[in-house]
């Protein structure tokens, strides 16, 4: 929770992403400003600032809210004050998008988002019975690109037709943009397309996913474990692909948290007892 703080610093907000405490991030830059920028904060959704009365009620009261504008001035402050007055756990991003960019934190590529997801929430389609890459990709999309994204799973021959008929984005299948490229998995392709490939923890996670998904366990020592757990979860889930996503997301949340906050921690049975 954001507790009583009226503002939150960019690094703290970044540290909350993909954790159980991750807030809803609402971008309230003026439309002309928002449409002119090249990137936006991962996981954020844009809302018209002067029409806040129309959309405040759509926010989840059970989750904190972070509001961000261009520089953290009147737009975000007015809306945060209104949210707090209505009982939301809300804070503004200190310094706004400018402070986020100055801190060198990741931004989602705007042109790719507009091209692939002209409407949000977005709909994505892939093959049934996901195991590794087809769970890692939805995790990345939900946590960083479109928090309200929906996913459907069909038999492999029908993915292309499903994408065309339902205006969905196909992924992790031959012949589409978001799939394996050279030695990279679809997860790595997503990182490239949306401008996240240089974030160190996501780049390391991509190597683990690639190792597990392509039987290249030599690429990362964690790949063998991810492979085993993923196949075990798939066996338990049987035909419940959406239930498998829920279970799998916990695995990727945990891996990402380990990479960011605990990768240097050692664990061993103590050789001596004090």
Brief sketch in words of this structure:
The chain is an alpha/beta fold and 274 residues long.
- Total helical segments: 12
Strand order, main sheet: write it out. Answer: 1-6-5-2-4
Oligomer: single chain
In round numbers, the mean pLDDT is 94
How many domains in all?
A: 2
Structure summary, number of beta strands: 10
User: What sort of overall outline do the alpha carbons produce when their principal axes are compared?
Assistant: globular
Give unreliable regions as ranges. none
Please give the share of residues in helix: 40-55%
Secondary-structure element order, as H and E? EHEHEEHEHEHEHEHEHEHHHH
Range of strand content: 5-15%
For the termini, the CA-CA separation is 38 Å
Radius of gyration: 20 Å
Structural class: alpha/beta
Biggest β-sheet strands, sense, barrel: 5 strands, parallel
């Amino acid at each position: 929770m954001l507790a009583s703080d009226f503002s939150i610093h960019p690094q703290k907000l970044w540290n909350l992403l993909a954790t159980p405490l991750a807030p809803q991030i609402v971008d309230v830059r003026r439309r002309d400003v928002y449409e002119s920028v090249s990137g936006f904060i991962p996981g954020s959704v844009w809302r018209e600032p002067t029409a806040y009365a129309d959309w405040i009620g759509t926010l989840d009261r059970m989750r904190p809210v972070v509001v961000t504008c261009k520089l953290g001035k009147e737009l975000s402050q007015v809306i945060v004050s209104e949210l707090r007055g209505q009982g939301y756990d809300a804070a503004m991003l200190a310094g706004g998008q400018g402070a986020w960019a100055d801190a060198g934190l990741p931004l989602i590529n705007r042109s790719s988002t507009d091209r692939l997801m002209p409407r949000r929430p977005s709909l994505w389609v892939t093959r049934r019975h996901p195991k590794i890459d087809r769970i890692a990709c939805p995790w990345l999309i939900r946590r960083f690109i479109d928090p309200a994204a929906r996913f459907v799973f069909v038999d492999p021959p029908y993915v292309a037709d499903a994408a065309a008929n339902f205006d969905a984005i196909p992924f992790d299948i031959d012949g589409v943009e978001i799939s394996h490229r050279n030695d990279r998995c679809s997860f790595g392709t997503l990182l490239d397309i949306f401008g996240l490939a240089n974030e160190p923890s996501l780049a390391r996670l991509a190597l683990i996913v690639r190792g597990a998904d392509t039987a290249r366990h030599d690429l990362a020592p964690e790949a063998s474990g991810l492979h085993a757990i993923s196949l075990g979860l798939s066996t338990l889930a049987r035909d419940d692909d959406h239930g498998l996503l829920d279970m799998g997301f916990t695995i990727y949340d945990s891996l990402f948290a380990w990479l960011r906050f605990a990768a240097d921690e050692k664990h061993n049975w103590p050789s001596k007892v004090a």
